[in-house]
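Journal club prep — side note

Before the paper discussion, L.F. wants everyone to see what a predicted structure for a comparable chain looks like in token form. Sequence:
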Amino acid sequence: MIFLTVGTHEQSFDRVVKAVDEYAYQNKLAKNQVVIQLGYTNYIPQNCSYSKMLSYKDMDKLYKESEVIITHGGPGSMFSPWKYGKKVIAVPRLSKFHEHVDDHQLHFCKLMEKEKKVICIEEISELASAINNLNTNMNVQNNEYLPKTSQFVENFKRSLNEIL
């Protein structure tokens, strides 16, 4: 299954939704094989299942079950896929398309790409290829998000023992 989330930003993100809808059509995918969280996007997909908004529980389920996760460039939409060891295709919202007020998502995605945590798609024409090659793309590590709580607690205990 392919899951696309565009987040909750109030500007439309037609560019990525149209591209995923076209991908589903070109590849003759069943509607239930592609799920899109539309947010405030104006374009309504014809070849995919979709919801404007999803609960945290529903999003989490989709992150777990999906083979391909496509997200906008917001960090919050990347943490859960990383937590499950999923590879992420990130399509940052760009100001030149009036998808956001500036290009901070592009800068973040490029940084995460250097860290081998995402495949950053700036040119929407590259999205289909990225989807097709996701599992063979060696430039992206299978990153699992690991909380640092345990490490913090151990360091804190060590510091307390030194003081006492």
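L.F.'s comment for the group: The chain has a mean pLDDT of 89. Keep this in mind when we get to the figures.
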